[in-house]
Amino acid sequence: MVIRWHRKGFKLFWQWISTHGRPGRNRIDPEIRKLIRDMSHANPLWSAPRIHGELMKLWIEVSEATVSRYMVKRRKPPSQIWRTFLDNHVKDLVSIDFLVVPTVKFKLLYVLVVLSHERRKIVHFNVTDSPTAAWTGQQIIEAFPFDTAPKYLIGDNDMIYGFDFKEKIKACGITLIRTAYRSTWQNAYCERVIGTLRRDCLDHILVFNRRQLMRVQREYVDTYYNTERTHLSLDKDAPEPREVQNPETGRIVEVPIQGGLHHRYFRKAA
Q: What is the pTM of this model?
């Protein structure tokens, strides 16, 4: 009888202990939960100990187990996205692509464009009516003489970038990065420049032959695109930085380029 009373009393005592006050674990502030998720989403390479250490530096006291519980769950190991690769290697990247230009006699000319990603600068271009892998590789050698070759070169899966091309750029120490099939967005900078060449120049002229096209392209690239044309991605600056001229420099002068298709503006002392 006494033992039964003792057991019942023991059970009631611990029921009272477990239900007294707030049940369960202490709740985590919603702002802290959101911060953990934001950190986990923005830093896919960070593990729970790394995020927990960051929270400690912010005077936020939570356990590492709690951090692990509220982290974003991923199905596969994290890896950098294509955009991250471009951002990390922008100073070592160039890209190449061809654009096709019809002549007045309905023949086709091929313009090779070599673009530096860091300043969106066209570092080289050339025109041919019969592009080959050897010719294309030679253009890369001419674009980057001596020790100026970049580390990576982005190109698509065109057969023009074949064995002869690979051997020539390999000799320069350049690694070819091929974009995925039908993924022109992976070479977006070069595609954007090709669109600019068409809208700003080629759509407004008739091409007679290779020599004329080279002359027109050289004038556009050297006297306008690289030196004068402002770019949104460069904070409204040109690939070759332009000096900001204050009013004390003189009056504004307008100079036509390509027969008045474009103009350059600068201040000149009276």
A: 0.69
Helix or strand (DSSP H, E) at 115: strand 108-116
Burial zone of 5 (CB within 10 Å; 0-12 exposed, 13-18 middle, 19+ buried):
exposed
Q: Count CA atoms within 13 Å of residue 222 on its CB side.
A: 8
Pairwise CA distance, residues 200 & 224, whole Å: 10
DSSP annotation of 155: E
Categorize the per-residue pLDDT at 6 as very low, low, confident or very high, splitting at 50, 70 and 90.
low
Interatomic CA distance for residues 69 and 202, integer angstroms: 58
- Please give the structure tokens belonging to residue 101: 């230009």
What are the structural domains, with CATH classification, of the chain?
A: 28-79 (no CATH), 85-234 (3.30.420.10)
Count of other CB atoms within 10 angstroms of residue 172: 17
Q: Which amino acid is at 140?
A: I
